[in-house]
Every structure is written in C-alpha cells, then in structure tokens.
Design goal:
alpha+beta, globular, 3 helices, six-stranded mixed beta sheet, 6 strands, Alpha-Beta Plaits
Length: 148
C-alpha cells in the first residue's frame, strides 16, 4: 500500500483510498469499521500524545504506576466530526475534522489500513489530505456531513 500526504488541514481533511478493484460490500464493511472505530477512539480523546505514559515507560512496564489524574491537567484532544464513507469505482473517501487530536492518530490509521490491505482488502494507495483529480470534492455538499 502506497501512502501519500497532500495539503493537510486537520479541520477539513479528506482521506482517499484507491483499491485494486471495486470493493465488494463485505470489503466496504471492513473499511468502514476501521474508519468508524478510529473515529470513535479519536472522539473519546484516545489520540492524545501528551498522555502516553505506557509508551514513554519503555518495554518494562511490570508494576508500572499509572497516573490517571494526569489527564485532568492536559488539554483534551478529541476528534470532532466524520462524514459518511463514499465510494466511486475503485476509489473510497471520507471527510474528517480531526479537532485537536494529535498526529499519532494518523500513524495508527496507516498501520491499521496497511494490515487490512495485507489480509482482507487490497488497497493500492492511501492519500491523506488535499484533493483527488480522479474524484473532485463538491464543497457545496454540506448536507453530507453527519454528527457522529
């Protein structure tokens, strides 16, 4: 799976997937579950790089003391909004407002989609941000955005 980054605006972000073939309904379900799960974790503030206590500890976390109160003293980092996933031929896309979630969220999404591509759905390309000349964005379609 090739990964490309284009113009990045976390508050107005299109994520594009190019598949090897037109995805079946089962393949679409896999893709949408990954994106929905990623968004719901983001909406709950899971992608907050200021509170990575376990990661920062290193490999030996035996008997680690976790400071749950630390989250009370850092800025929240929730995602704000997600549109419905759309398909056209071998392309899929979804719009996001990543809010104040940290960029670790994109690494987690890329890792997830890379593994999904190896096991379930052949994804040729993941494009994060910008426009896609094969499928233009109609900025007047405000009604397409949901309030997940």
């Amino acid at each position: 799976m090739e990964v490309q980054f284009r113009e990045f605006n976390p508050f107005d972000l299109w994520i594009w997937l190019e598949f090897e073939t037109t995805p079946s309904s089962m393949e679409q379900q896999y893709i949408e579950e990954v994106f929905n799960s990623w968004f719901y974790l983001g909406k709950l503030g899971a992608f907050n790089a200021e509170n990575l206590q376990v990661q920062d500890m290193g490999v030996d976390i035996s008997y680690m003391e976790y400071n749950i109160e630390m989250s009370d003293h850092i800025m929240m980092a929730p995602m704000h909004n997600m549109a419905e996933f759309q398909y056209e031929g071998t392309w899929g896309r979804c719009w996001f407002d990543l809010g104040t979630s940290d960029l670790i969220s994109l690494d987690i999404l890329i890792n997830s989609l890379n593994q999904l591509s190896k096991e379930y759905v052949n994804i040729n390309k993941l494009i994060i941000g910008g426009e896609n000349e094969d499928w233009r964005v109609d900025r007047r379609q405000d009604a397409m955005f949901s309030d997940n």
